[in-house]
Amino acid sequence: MKSRPGGAALAPLRAGLPAGLPAGLLAGLLALLSAGPSDAAPMVPGHSVALSRSEVAKGADITVTGKGWRPGALLMLLVCGESNPELGVIGGTNSCANADGQAVTTDDKGSFSKVLVAAPPPKPCPCVVHVATVQGEQAVVDTELKITGHPEEPLPASGPGKLAVLTEPRLDGSGSLLTWFGAPPARTLVFTVGNLGSGPVKDPVFQLGTAHGVFAPQWEDRQWKGTIQAGQKAEIRLDFELSPGAHGDYQISLQYAKKLLATEPWGVDRPWGVTLFWILLCLVVPAAVFRIGMVVVDRLRPRVPRRSDQARHRGVRLPDVTVRLPKVRRTPAEGPPPAAPAPDPGAAPHGTTAALPWFTPDSAPSENHPNRP
User: Fold this and answer.
1) H-run or E-run covering 50
2) Which residues, 6+ apart, have CB-to-CB distance to 299 below 8 Å?
3) Pairing state of beta strands 88-89 and 83-84?
4) φ and ψ at 217, to 5 degrees?
5) I want to staple 124 with a disulfide (CB 3.0 to 4.6 A). Which of 151, 256, 320, 358 is the partner?
């Protein structure tokens, strides 16, 4: 009978086991210890990228395949220079042929296959095919690629991953009147980093991410111009802004060399000026339309002449209207009653009324009247 591999090595262990152990427990321990590599649990596959050819000429087509990605994830494929799989893309996306990049969406199993043009990047080789997620959880895989005929230079002495944040980041800046009316909110992320490596770090490229609510951050490259010598520190100021009209709870993340360095919350106020503008617009526009409509109706309706105008044109004279005010009776002042006037000798006796003439002064007979007797 063929002995199981590892049986000789387990013989001293069997001899050293106490005799009082139950038979079932003893058998379980021996089976666990004598299990070979084939009995181990399978490893969960991670993000992987494979190229159809590892060396191509300039402008040639290569097929990029990947497995183990998130199903339905949107990926960006780029050919980048001055990078390698261990250090990543040192110069950020500025070292990549962005104009010839390709986008692909993974299938239900997290796999993809895409043809990519090996366009020469703006930086010299060593080169890689850079595959990164566009949205959602950040995932990056760099695969080495050699481009025939493209310049090749050694990588800088200092690579990424040597910087560390020494102080708590802060956001400098404030809103303005334009921000109150919907202009993009802008801030400056200020932090201090130290170079923990043995060589200088020149023009480091940071990744700045903005996340709104529960959504994943959107990353953008921010390059800082300068050199940080070994053992020294420097204050970094990175300017950024949000989209117009942005408001709510945001989280600003800082990343360098695929490592998350710091996060900073930011509460953006609502642009109330935009709301006020729309309220005034809803009030002013209908009022203006109504006024314009009334003017148009007044211009288009037929003219009806007034009564006074009609009478004037016909030559008819309107009767004069006399307004009589009531007489005000005065209250007699206190005192003795006024004396009675003296009687007129030619007046009529008391109690009688004087006779009035039967004619008025205007109708009195004239001396020259033809009908006078």
Assistant:
1) strand 48-51
2) none
3) antiparallel
4) -70, 150
5) 151
Q: Minimal CA–CA distance to 69: which of 22, 105, 27?
A: 105
Buried b (16+ CB within 10 A) or exposed e, 173-197: eeeeeebeebbebebebbbebbbeb
More confident residue, 162 or 275: 275
Element (H, E) at 187: strand 186-195
Q: How confident is the model over 152-170, as a mean pLDDT?
A: 76
Closest alpha carbon to 193 in 144, 234, 253: 234
**Phi and psi (nearest 5°) for 277?**
-60, -45
Tell me the C-alpha distance between 255 and 242, whole Å.
18
264 contacts 171 by C-beta, under 8 angstroms:
yes
- Cβ pair 83, 77 in contact under 8 A: no
- Which residues, at least 6 apart from 206, have a Cβ–Cβ distance to it below 8 Å? 221, 222, 223, 224, 236, 238, 254, 255, 256
pLDDT tens-digit series, residues 275-323: 888 888 888 888 889 889 888 888 888 876 666 555 555 555 656 656 5
Nearest to 91 by CA among 155, 165, 141, 150: 155
